[in-house]
Design brief:
The chain is mainly α and 109 residues long. Helix content is 56%, strand content 9%. It contains four helices and two strands. It has a two-stranded antiparallel sheet. The two termini are 23 Å apart.
Length: 109
């Protein structure tokens, strides 16, 4: 049996990691992340909490970020986008797959 490595991420970090992966690198910015969480998960998250959590994920090497060019929609300001790294994808799999197996067993009972 494969041992799941504890990469030290909490529920919100796990959630945002999966949201960034779901949105994809062309759409994963803070505003879209907040909108996705609000519309699809019925949870309210503040901009500060999302920024802080994304910085922590980046420090752990689970996501990377870059600035877009200046955008007229944002008054000429740049927008930061996020992408899940290979390590981040592996982490999502390691965290999700055991839960999936348990859920699958629940459905069968």
């Amino acid at each position: 049996m494969k041992k799941v490595e504890n990469r030290g991420i909490g529920e919100l970090m796990e959630l945002l990691l999966m949201v960034v992966l779901t949105l994809g690198e062309d759409h994963a910015n803070v505003q879209n992340i907040i909108t996705f969480v609000s519309n699809n998960l019925n949870r309210a998250v503040s901009t500060v909490v999302v920024h802080t959590t994304l910085k922590r994920l980046q420090k752990k090497g689970l996501i990377t970020s870059w600035l877009s060019g200046k955008r007229p929609v944002r008054g000429g300001r740049c927008c930061r986008y996020y992408k899940v790294t290979t390590t981040g994808i592996s982490t999502v799999h390691d965290l999700f797959y055991p839960k999936y197996l348990i859920y699958k067993r629940l459905l069968m009972s």
